[in-house]
């Protein structure tokens, strides 16, 4: 029987999922599901600075190493996630550092981490979630301590460390026209024009079926980004729903249709050759899982709590 994985491969496409150390380390069903159904993984948390550098100057790649090894052994491509983000280790947040110290620390951190996996990562989410909804740079630790240069520096450092990995800027709510989307495209295009090595833009796409959604808007934004020379990948798709019990089936059907239209757009675009969902099965979603009617945290993914295919899975498969 065909899987989305095999059909995606026929289209030279990566069909990925986020993968987390817990349950990766203790649930063989989870590992089986991932290696059978996907051909790519994003390391969900274990390459984030909070986990990689729990103390100043001390690197811990043990969990990420195990996961990357599993991916290599099973023919899964790996997306590195994420080098520069507003979430930072407590010792950095609480510490007293000069601008130079912080710049050097970030450079060393980015290059050590990228080199650790050199040649084994198809794309790095270099900078994550740098813009706010108005289109201004978020007042995060890096902006405050380094200044707005932190973005271009991070890309240049990553490029030096692994010239072959694709380098991405990744964000949420950048898939529809908005002040944030406009500012992102403008800002990144300017950097690109002056030679900053930014290959692409990641659209996270954490969606909710209760919200309005127009797939043609997504396509317009993807076109705009591609016209500026960027690759566009879908990096963290999930679609949550809130149900009353009785309307669960209807809601899951809507969810399935939305998943399918997003895959369809991705297939139509020239550069969207990586489509990643943010978790393999509902109980492992970052937004949680409960079967309680009324909860907004239920059922966001493609496989259910028994690791079985959901309507959304079948709807995506039917697109190919
Ligand atoms: C989330 C993980 O899924 C959770 O397990 C963790 O507790 C917090 O981070 N945008 C991102 C991801 O770029 O890194 C986030 O992942 C989800 C939102």
UniProtKB/TrEMBL annotation:
The keyword Cell division does not apply. Residues 1-319 form the GH10 domain. Its EC number is 3.2.1.8. It comes from the Bacteria. Keywords: Carbohydrate metabolism, Glycosidase, Hydrolase, Polysaccharide degradation, Signal, Xylan degradation. It catalyses: Endohydrolysis of (1->4)-beta-D-xylosidic linkages in xylans. Signal peptide: none annotated. InterPro entries: GH, GH10, GH10_dom. It is an enzyme of class 3 (hydrolase). Belongs to the glycosyl hydrolase 10 (cellulase F) family. This is Beta-xylanase.
